Amino acid sequence: MLSLVAALAAAGLFAKTLDRLGVRVGLPEALLGLLTALAADGPEIASVIVALVKGATAVSLGVVVGSNVFNLAAMLGFSALLAGSVMLPRQVLAIEAAAALLAATIAAAVVFAGLPASVAAALVVVALVPYLLVLSRGSRFARRLPFSEQVDRRLARALAEREHWGHHHALDDTALWRLVGMMVPAAALIVLGAIGMVESAITLAGHWGVPRTIVGVLILAPLTSLPNAYTAVRLGQARRGAALVSETLNSNTINLVAGLVLPALFVSVAARGALSGFAFGWLALMTVTALGLLGRRGGLGRLGGALLVVLYLVFCAVELAYS
Fold first, then answer.
1. Structural domain tally of the chain?
2. Considering only CA atoms, which of 313, 63, 17 is closest in space to residue 197?
3. Of 70, 147, 271, 299, which one has the greatest count of Cβ atoms within 10 A?
4. CATH code, domain carrying 223
5. Residues of the domain holding 246
6. What is the pTM of this model?
């Protein structure tokens, strides 16, 4: 319990601090969402790596897939239930969706099709570099894309709107450096807390006879995803749809790349059993459903949010019934 509290509190502090720093320097909303996701993903990634080092592949795979499914329900679904809707420009959604779906396809190919990890890592770089350029350069980069003038103009306008959605609070230099100093011990606590969580979960699973898959999917995954959920709800209530969607999809992409593709360079992450296939398939279903709902004229509303939550509960029920 102490490891859990330490890791979650540190991750929450790290993500909140990074968000304030990003706003302070005027980062685009979606880039800010990416950085926040990277910070809040600390417990998940650390737990996956620790599990792989201990040889608990089922636990690590369960954390990755379970976290991603939970993120869609908690970050998007629950935020829509509380805020009433989650909205962002369709052009921006298309960019976010393309990057997320490409990364998911590459990770699935590593796990199920035996795609060599080196090839997968190269494909990830090719797929995500243009996305990162769009986020960091914003509307200036969009105007240089090889599309029709009308498409370039619409995309540039959407990105320009996104760049001004930030909430810029005053933050003097002393406070800025104080925040930076807080991030170092927070990062250390995230890693130490994750080690304690994985050790405890695997030990308890052995004592109670709980399958390791369940430990990863239904225990470690939602627990380590709580910092992301907290940050997402805060963004949703502030009507920062671009940052919220970016954080959610990028959190899932980071989990897949850092939790599956990169570790595959050193250890085997191949999945075994029909339940692993079901988990990835259900993740794909929830991802496509969420993107479709976000692309509607009114965005993701309360009914759509409730649907994502129900889909997650069905996922949990199937995992419990067949594990």
1. 1
2. 63
3. 70
4. 1.20.1420.30
5. 2-322
6. 0.80
